[in-house]
Amino acid sequence: AGCDLECLDSFEQTLAKTTLLVKVGVALTRRGRCRLTPLLERLRELQQRHRAIGDVRGLGLMLAVDLVKDKATKEPDHELLERVLYRAFEKGLVVLGCGDSSIRIAPPLIVTEEEADRAVQILDQVLGEACASGSR
After folding, report:
1. Which phi and psi angles does 77 have, rounded to 5°?
2. What pLDDT sits at residue 61?
3. Kind of pairing, strands 75-76 and 53-59?
4. Residue 69 CA to its chain's centroid (Å)
5. What's the pLDDT band for 112 if we cut at 50, 70, 90?
6. Rounded to the nearest 5°, which phi and psi values hold at 18?
7. Which of 11, 53, 79, 86 fits as disulfide partner to 47, beta carbons 3.0 to 4.6 Å?
8. pLDDT bucket at 5, cuts 50 / 70 / 90
């Protein structure tokens, strides 16, 4: 009573669109969560190879790599961060600094495995170059 067919159609359309958006959102979130583990593992492998990486952490696809002067003291290395960010950008990888000396890695949910691999390769190379140029 009080709602004709046109109102019902509009409601059904809205409900269908909302349901679809929720399903897409859930699927993208799952995709991001599934992609977290391999990317986080690859970044932790970098931590083993580079003494300048003090910590690697993440939630979803928001990841951080802490650059330090000494792994034992975890003293932030601001200068190294600047060198790494600059060189990564020159090589086509856009990452941001955050906190005292962390690299923020926040790829889109649609990132491919190949793109994530390439990002880790660039970070590996840039860290090696930046540490060498900084007489570490």
Report:
1. -115, 90
2. 80
3. unpaired
4. 23
5. confident
6. -65, -45
7. 53
8. very low
What span, in angstroms and rounded, lies between the C-alpha atoms of 28 and 110?
8
Evaluate if pTM is beyond 0.85.
no
Structure tokens at 60: 């979803």
pLDDT given for residue 76 in this prediction: 97
Decide if pLDDT at 17 tops 90. no
What's the mean per-residue pLDDT of the chain? 82
Q: Which two tokens stand for residue 45?
A: 């492998």
Q: How far apart are CA 87 and CA 14, in angstroms?
A: 48
Specify whether the backbone of 53 is left (phi greater than 0), alpha (psi in -120 to 50) or beta.
beta
Distance CA 88, CA 70 (A): 22
Smallest CA-to-CA distance from 122 within 134, 111, 130 is with 130
